[in-house]
Amino acid sequence: MNITNNVNTLAVLKKPRITEKAGVKAESENVYTFEVTKRATKKSVIEAVKQIYKVTPVKVNITILPVKNTTSRGKRGKKGGAKKAVVYLKKGEKITFI
Questions:
Q1: SS3 (DSSP) at 74
Q2: At what angle do helices 42-53 and 3-10 cross, to 10 degrees?
Q3: Domain assignment present for 94
Q4: CATH code of 32's domain
Q5: C-alpha–C-alpha distance, residues 89 and 58, integer Å
Q6: 2, pLDDT greater than 80
Q7: pLDDT value at position 97?
């Protein structure tokens, strides 16, 4: 793998999605959720998780979260959509977030 591919692979994961549901799934089912870039694929997410966290995912699901219209104090706006990846790990492997 050349250096430019390596940089692109590391830039695939934006940040972990830390929610109540994600925390419960991480503890009980060994499933972790990340926000990823719009062009991320399952293979690129697998490579990024391997390189950053030194664990091998069993399965990855990718979901696109839609843009939602909102109203606040009489003004209309939009909540930005996102793309998230759900990463399944083997039993015994863990990812720790600081």
A1: coil
A2: 90
A3: no
A4: 3.30.70.330
A5: 5
A6: no
A7: 80
Q: Quick one: which of 97, 84, 94 has its CA closest to 42?
A: 84
H-helix or E-strand spanning residue 63: strand 57-65
**Using CA atoms, how far apart are residues 28 and 26, in angstroms rounded to an integer?**
6
Is residue 58 in a domain? yes
Q: What is the 3-state secondary structure (H, E, C) of 12-23?
A: CEEEECCCHHHH
pLDDT at 6: 60
Examine the pLDDT at 17 and tell me if it is beyond 50: yes
Q: Phi and psi of 4, rounded to 5°?
A: -65, -40
pLDDT for 40-64, tens place per residue?
Answer: 999 999 999 999 999 999 999 999 9
- The full length of the chain comes to 98
> What predicted TM-score, i.e. pTM, was given to this entire model?
0.82
